[in-house]
Design goal:
340 residues, alpha+beta, 6-stranded antiparallel sheet, 31% helix
């Protein structure tokens, strides 16, 4: 079922449930991993992961994205209840429950009960409930595939959910050039790295530096691709040769880092893609190194330089989104109605 929501005197009651064709003990095994590093139930990396500060049990504290809660009740193999806490403006709980329906069937139910406060009274109807409904249906798909011989048709995201999720996409931002980016520091003799941007990879993305490099440079946003095509059409006016796809070939690699680039008459270009793990989370950093040769190179770079930070942030952010989605589709098969 797609879920039902009732609001009575300001009290929200939202319910989702699905019959899983597997023993209740198998579904309970999934529930026991919730919020941990090896979570088998929560639908990440398509959604921000649920993270708890300790194994599932009363008092475990955490949440997903900006939604915060702690475990207020737990019966292993049967149910777990979370109480929302600040800054979440929702006084109430959300809970998972497993009910045996026989030897080889179980009912998995999720309920949200509570009273939204302040701005959340509007946000619940406008954004939170549609996103919540989509997340829980994806979670049920996850559960069914993990323990059942059935392969359910994946739940569809509505057009409104796809629009809302644009605000949850990974965002790349400027950062110091990391010391760990050794290929960037040694890329061009006597030339220091120009700048760096970084993005947090969604847990479960599972991509190496070459996959990240391909996602960044071989599949840029459409508007960036348009700028690259415009560049190819105009550079001849100042005597600069066209780049071609080989401009983003890998020239060096080491564990956790690849270096791409090319040498041209007007400038030499290098880009390092570093995948680094800190405190269990992966950060991907794109570092640029440029060496200008002559007046043509300086003129070209004077035109390109103002756009460069915007372009590389957009390319890395899109790569993070695309690779997370690719990992999710590989996990579920080919979700119908999810964004590409």
């Amino acid at each position: 079922m797609e879920g039902t929501t009732e609001v009575v005197m300001g009290l929200v009651h939202n319910t989702h449930q699905r019959e899983i064709h597997a023993p209740a003990e198998a579904v309970a095994g999934l529930l026991g991993t919730l919020g941990g590093a090896e979570d088998l139930l929560w639908p990440s990396p398509a959604w921000m992961p649920m993270r708890l500060d300790r194994p599932l049990g009363v008092g475990a504290d955490g949440g997903h994205g900006p939604i915060r809660y702690r475990v207020s009740a737990y019966e292993p193999g049967r149910r777990v209840r979370f109480a929302f806490r600040l800054p979440t403006r929702f006084d109430g709980t959300h809970a998972f429950e497993i009910r045996p329906l026989g030897e080889d069937r179980a009912l998995l139910r999720h309920t949200v009960t509570g009273r939204p406060r302040g701005l959340m009274r509007l946000l619940w109807h406008l954004a939170v409930r549609p996103l919540h409904d989509a997340l829980i249906e994806d979670l049920f798909d996850n559960a069914e595939r993990a323990v059942s011989a059935r392969s359910p048709r994946p739940a569809r995201w509505s057009p409104w959910v796809r629009v809302l999720r644009l605000r949850t996409r990974p965002v790349a931002s400027a950062c110091p050039v990391p010391e760990a980016a050794r290929l960037a520091h040694d890329a061009l003799d006597g030339v220091r790295p120009l700048d760096a941007v970084a993005v947090r990879a969604r847990p479960g993305t599972g991509a190496g530096p070459q996959e990240w490099a391909d996602a960044v440079f071989r599949d840029p946003p459409r508007w960036v691709l348009g700028l690259l095509l415009l560049r190819e059409a105009l550079v001849g006016l100042i005597g600069v040769e066209r780049a071609g796809r080989e401009a983003f070939d890998t020239v060096r690699s080491r564990p956790g880092e690849v270096l791409l680039g090319t040498d041209s008459g007007h400038l030499d270009f290098r880009a390092s893609v570093l995948v680094d793990t800190d405190d269990g989370r992966e950060t991907v950093t794109l570092t640029t190194v440029v060496r200008l040769h002559n007046r043509r190179g300086r003129l070209y770079w004077a035109v390109v330089r103002p756009l460069h930070p915007l372009v590389v942030r957009a390319m890395l952010g899109r790569a993070a989104h695309r690779l997370a989605h690719r990992a999710w589709t590989a996990r579920l098969g080919t979700p119908v109605g999810h964004e590409g």
